[in-house]
Amino acid sequence: MDIQIDTWLLPLWQRFGVALLLGLLVGVDRERVKSSTPGIGFGGVRTFTLLSLLGCTAGLAGEMCGQWVFVGVLLSLTVLVGVAYLGGVRRGDEGMTSEVAAMLVFLVGGLVYWGCVVIATAVTVAITFFLSYKRAIHTLIGRLSDEDVFATLKFALIFIIILPVLPNTTYGPFDVLNPQKIWLMVVLISAVNFVGYGLTRILGPKQGIGLTGLVGGLVSSTAVTLGFSHRSQNEPQLAGLFSIAIATASMIMFARVLVVVGAVNSLLLPAVAVPIGAGLAAGLIGIAYIWFRYGRRTVPALADSDYTKGVNPLELGPAIKFGLLFGAVLFVAAAAQKYFGDVGLYVSSILAGLTDVDAITLSLCQLAGDTIDYSVAARCIIMAVAANTIVKAGMVATLAAGALRRQAIPVFGFMLVVTLIAAFAF
To answer: What is the model's pTM?
Structure first.
């Protein structure tokens, strides 16, 4: 079986150089541990660097003399590491993390020689992370509740098990209903909720909620709005932070549209830059308004607040409903585009914007200048962005606590009005 992953193979001397650097990275961390805790730990910077070089050399020898050479070196190293572990046990060091890391570093050297540089680098980064953040990882695990573990398993179920087995094929009269893509929306919304919950547990409500809005906006501002609108019912005193997170995610959505248009069809960018840029600026003003008007009042409430208490880390019900709505919107948008021409294109853009703007933006960028005029494509993108903003305002109006409604809806209205005025003016 061909185990080569990369599409290119480094020259021999470069492979040994990469192996040396990867082993050195792990070795520096182990040397730091040995220096702070004398007598504890297996190997240091020299040992792990040599182990990586040994793996690369064994890969070369295996290629020249037969793969049994590599296997023999691996078995010999296993025996040596086992003896070192037994010696550590006698000294009272019962952990075997460094010993396992040593075996992995040897295999990393072999992977580098075989050309799997990306995988080898990823494995090295993972090794270094788990070795360096031992105390933080143990602290985090100690804070996990049964509900947290169950939520993690549920997310793994819907993402790792269910998503890959769903058919990635379109069905229906208009050939647009793709079960895997529809379920992907469920995964995205669940992921934003789950990551937001985790960040809040780790960093606290102030940093966790804000960072979730920023990161979530890169994925789906609609998911952020839906998640925080539901959660505001549990902690209405944190409405200021929720509003900032929702406004941040929506602002990122405007920025995302500009980046996508500029990257896919730069000729279309001048037609959308002013209205979308105006909406982006309005979002920044809205965030500043919420912070100075409400956000600073929220901070004192954090001392007495346990945001995660009673919160379901992975609430699938709203996510599944939104996924079904996403499928229905795709179907109706395809029908409108087929039967009503340019008018149908406008209608389908508005309908597509009800759930997400990325898909329709990408499609219009590809069609602009080919099958549709640039001005038509620009209008459709602006309509999709406006529709998405209206939907998010509707989510807040119908699902959120009263305080969040009073704070976020005016910002959505401001972003919408500024965008439309700029579109008509320019």
So the answer is: 0.61
**Would you state the structure tokens that stand for residue 37, as one six-digit string?**
């805790």
For 68-102, what is each residue's pLDDT tens digit? 889 999 899 888 888 877 776 676 666 677 788 88
CA 297/CA 291 separation, integer angstroms: 9
User: What are the Cα distances from residue 420, in Å, to 106, 239, 272, 274, 347?
Assistant: 60, 28, 11, 10, 17
What radius of gyration, in Å, describes the C-alpha atoms of the chain? 27
How many Å apart are CA 332 and CA 4, to the nearest integer? 45
Position 47: which residue type?
A: T
How far apart are alpha carbons 27 and 43 in whole angstroms? 8
Question: Can you tell me the distance from the alpha carbon of 397 to that of 385, in angstroms, rounded to the nearest whole number?
Answer: 18
**Ramachandran region, residue 369 (left: φ > 0; alpha: ψ -120 to 50; beta: rest):** left
Spell out the residues 6+ positions from residue 258 whose beta carbon is closer than 8 angstroms to its own: 269, 272, 273, 276, 277, 280
User: 142 is written with which tokens?
Assistant: 């100690």
Would you call 177 helix, strand, or coil by DSSP? strand
